[in-house]
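Quick illustration, no need to memorize.
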Amino acid sequence: MGFPMARNLARSGISVRAWNRSRDKAEPLAKDGAQVCDSPAEAAEGASVILTMLAAADAVLDVVTGERGALVLGQLEGVQRAACPHCRPSASPPAATAAAGS
């Protein structure tokens, strides 16, 4: 779900910084104008809006609070976020809290 959304945003001229745990899955977005990043923090750097499409609660925690996550590096303050996990937020209260930026 995230790849097609990122592609459509990039093709429409919106600046997209994409990251995927498997970089090779994000690489094709470069031909559509997206910048492929090496970490969630790099993708979040300077963003005014962050969209996440993650498969599980542990992935949400890793991307937001992990060693190279955006929250750890202080990059979520004042940023609009839309978390679109493939799991229910209630599946993991810590993941829901992390996704909300609390």
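The chain has a mean pLDDT of 79.
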